[in-house]
Amino acid sequence: MTLAIPALRVVGATRRFGAITALAGIDLEARKGEMLTLLGPSGSGKTTLLKVIAGFEVPDEGEVFLAGRNVTLAPPARRDIGMVFQNYALFPHLTVAQNIGFPLEMRKVSRAERHRRVQEALELVELPEHGDRFPRELSGGQQQRVALARAVVFGPSLLLLDEPFGALDRKLREQMQLEVRRLQRRLKLTAVFVTHDQEEALILSDRIAVMEGGRLSQLGSPQDIHSRPANRFVAAFIGESNLFRARIVDGNHAELERGLRIALPEGAPGAGTDIALILRPERPRRLQGERADASLSGRVVDVVYLGETVKYRIEDEHGAQITVRWPYPAHDAPLALGEALTVGWDRNDMHWIPWS
Fold first, then answer.
1. Beta bridge partners of residue 253, listed in sequence order
2. CB-based contacts of 18, cutoff 8 Å, min separation 6
């Protein structure tokens, strides 16, 4: 059986700027038709990696392949890549139609064919009547749609999106996220999306590559990244977690720093090992007489209203704390500061990773 050639393959990509190593030997593949997100904080290397893929940066070491073709030294114009930037990068003196048609003009596509493809692209981004307008006459969201249409009008083999929604307000950003996902699936585009927003990454991605310090910390589906983080950095960066340092005391139990003894998830290592236990705030439940594999009794010390949910921080008499996040009660009042309760969870609601 012949293995499918990846749409994008990065092998050992290293990029240094003086004493700073922006990329430290990145290996990464994007499958044909998938949305792969590069996620990480500022300085993690995600934008440098995108520039290496696009051809704006040449790696000091390593190679870049598009559909099996080595493009490491090829200029951006020879890579058949569409790009969407945060600042839109539209030509202010050209109309919307002229902006969208510019990549086709550079490829010497005939005028009639250019007109046809531009109209198709305008229909695709739901701006069919805006071809004669100038960028300054459009809203931010409309300009981003034009930039997207220009990036896909020539049928690129790869679409790169560099934090394209950073300049938009929250409501419009959420709308554009769904729009880009719909467009990417409809056109069956392979896309690499750069963001520092973990919620955006979870919404958009088929897979997420979490980056830290120029290295790839974890690559996986949104569900894997969220539920089974590979290390403490990923656990802290993706979503919100209760992170406990624990020492395993026997095959079934671990002891936390403040003396709380809890049941271990399946597959934990042997006695004497220091581990981190990760528990998402949505997992614990309030116990009222029933038992659970692990529990904590204490009082509410913090209440944060979040619309559809409420976040509570609970502290026991020894100072051990846990954060829970539950749906806002439809009929009863939320818990009050100082209210006593016991919360519990099943052992396999937790995920363990090495402490180091």
1. 263
2. none
User: DSSP assignment of 330-352, as one string?
Assistant: SSSPPPPTT-EEEEEE-GGGEEE
CA neighbor of 315 nearest in space, from 255, 237, 258: 258
Give pLDDT tens digits for 98-127: 999 999 999 999 999 999 999 999 999 999
CA end-to-end span of the chain: 41
Shortest CA distance to 140 belongs to which of 105, 176, 181?
176
**Average pLDDT of the residues of the chain:** 92
Q: Distance of alpha carbon 206 from its chain centroid, rounded?
A: 10
DSSP state of 76: G
For residue 258 the two structure tokens come to: 């403040």
Tokens linked to 268: 């934990």
Distance CA 191, CA 305 (A): 36
Q: How sure is the predictor about 260, in pLDDT bands with cuts at 50, 70 and 90?
A: confident
